[in-house]
Amino acid sequence: MIKIDFDKMGGLIPAIIQDYENGEVLMVAFMDQKTLDLTLKDGKTWFFSRTRNKYWMKGEESGNTQEVMEVLTDCDADTVVIKVKQNGPAACHTGNRSCFYVRWENDQWVEHSKPLFDPNEVYKK
Question: Coiled-coil intervals in this record (predicted)?
Answer without folding.
Answer: none
